[in-house]
Amino acid sequence: MDLIPRALQLLLDKDMIGFAGLWAEDGVMEFPFAPPGWPARLEGRAAIEDYLRDYPKMLDIRSFPKQVVHETPDVLVAEFDAEGVVVATGKPYRASYIAVITLRDGEILNYRDYWNPLLAQELAA
Length: 125
Description:
Largest sheet: 6 strands, mixed
């Protein structure tokens, strides 16, 4: 399945509407480690679009040097590292992510994003 490479390329292209378009209309995005003040759950493609719209203004992601995908017929587990720049400060950004993704008819039904909540401090700086 090419969902993960396609999703990561959309992020590199800063096409947040295209990225959100990978979700089912009733899809969900969850952040189990969300820090205070950050959403823990977004319901519906429109809410996901709204959340992601300004992402490129915070982070300029330039590469995904590590990409590992574990597949089952309906669930993907993606491990990836992102590298780029924090837009507000110009500081380098490096983060490792694990996403557990449930699919329905080729669209994302549920995306659980496991990332380091301490990185939110860099973005708020």
